[in-house]
């Protein structure tokens, strides 16, 4: 299926590609393309990702993993988690290239993070209108535990908090 390994600095461009394609595919009916591009230019800038890679390599409470096709070494997805408390990690980002969704890669990334960190609880915030991702978490027995209304760059949205105990 895929090889899951820690992100390397040489993966940054591939992660940017996965993020851009996933964000457009997932959010084009929710946000304007201008907002998506603005968000991506900040959150997935080379400098921001370099900082994350370097910081995460030094910090056991953070994990940034990529899913790579063994045949081509193409990065087709990634997951990034942060230790929130002794028992809980937060999923900061999980994205899979659109043509590779539905193949179990997201599930494998979550399993790998859980195994690496001996996690007892995992939490994820999801845009309320992101029905595809909400279905993904619900199908894996994540439960809704809260919601929050936020405003960013003029967009007000509701985020749903999912949690799963292991």
From TrEMBL:
Position of the signal peptide: none
Residues annotated as domain N-acetyltransferase: 2-166
SUPFAM superfamilies: Acyl-CoA N-acyltransferases (Nat)
InterPro entries: Acyl_CoA_acyltransferase, GNAT_dom, MshD_Acetyltransferase
Cross-referenced Pfam families: Acetyltransf_1 (PF00583)
Protein name as annotated: N-acetyltransferase domain-containing protein
Annotated source species: Paenibacillus segetis
Upper lineage: Bacteria, Bacillati, Bacillota, Bacilli, Bacillales
